[in-house]
Design goal:
The chain is mainly beta. The chain has one helix spanning 156-172, and strands at residues 5-6, 10-12, 19-28, 43-53, 59-63, 68-72, 77-78, 80-81, 89-94, 98-108, 116-120, 123-124, 127-128, 132-136. It is built from one helix and 14 strands. A hairpin with a 4-residue loop joins β6 (68-72) and β7 (77-78). It is globular, with a radius of gyration of 16 Å. The strands form three sheets. It has a five-stranded mixed β-sheet with strand order 1-14-11-6-7, covered by helices on one side. A five-stranded antiparallel β-sheet has the order 2-3-4-10-8, with no helix packed on it. Helix content is 10%, strand content 41%.
Length: 173
C-alpha cells in the first residue's frame, strides 16, 4: 500500500540513488509581488519543495508548473496556484551534497486550509520519477502531533501522522 508523507518528511527515490525530496514550511504568507486578482477573498499560503542530492553524481532536475498539484479541504478541491509569484526549479543541476528549493504560493478558502495535500512528480534528467504525496495543513506544525479537527473526528494529517508513527514502532520492535 502506498502511504502519503506528512509535510516535512523526506522521500527518497529508489530509481535515483541519493536523491530525495520533501514538501515543507507550509504556512500562511502573502506573495512578494502582490495578490493575484483571481484570488480575491481567498487566503494565501506558501510551501517549499526541496530536492537534495546525497548521492555521488549530479542530477538534472525539473520541477515546474504541472508537476505540482495542491488540493485543499475534505473534498480535495484544487487550490488557486499563483504561478506569477512562485519560484520553480527549471533545468537545474543538483550536485552531490547540494540542494535546490522551489517556493510555491497558493490560495484557497480559509476553512479549507486545515487540510492540504501536495502531490509532486519530479523530472530527473529526462526521466519522470514516481508521484509522491504529502499531507498537512495550515496551523499544524511539522514533526509535532496534530490536533483533531473536531469532536469525534481526526484531521487527515493527524491520521497520517498516527499511521506513520505506528508503522515506525512496529519496525523497531
Amino acid at each position: 500500500m502506498y502511504e502519503p508523507n506528512v509535510v516535512g518528511d523526506w522521500q527518497e527515490y529508489d530509481e535515483h540513488a541519493g536523491l530525495r525530496v520533501r514538501v515543507h514550511r507550509l504556512e500562511r504568507a502573502e506573495p512578494p509581488r502582490g495578490r493575484d486578482d483571481a484570488a480575491e477573498g481567498l487566503a494565501y499560503f506558501r510551501l517549499r519543495v526541496t530536492v537534495e542530492n546525497r548521492g555521488d553524481r549530479r542530477f538534472g532536475i525539473h520541477l515546474e508548473d504541472g508537476q505540482i498539484d495542491v488540493r485543499i479541504g475534505p473534498d480535495g478541491e484544487g487550490a488557486f496556484l499563483d504561478w506569477r509569484n512562485s519560484q520553480f526549479i527549471e533545468g537545474y543541476d543538483v550536485y552531490p551534497l547540494r540542494r535546490a528549493t522551489a517556493v510555491l504560493y497558493a490560495a484557497g478558502p480559509e476553512a479549507a486550509l486545515a487540510q492540504v495535500d501536495v502531490q509532486i512528480q519530479l523530472r530527473v534528467d529526462d526521466d519522470w520519477a514516481e508521484r509522491r504525496l504529502w499531507a498537512g495543513g495550515i496551523g499544524l506544525h511539522e514533526g509535532t502531533p496534530c490536533a483533531p479537527a473536531g469532536p469525534g473526528r481526526e484531521s487527515l494529517a493527524h491520521q497520517v501522522s498516527n499511521f506513520l508513527r505506528d508503522q515506525a514502532e512496529e519496525g523497531t520492535a
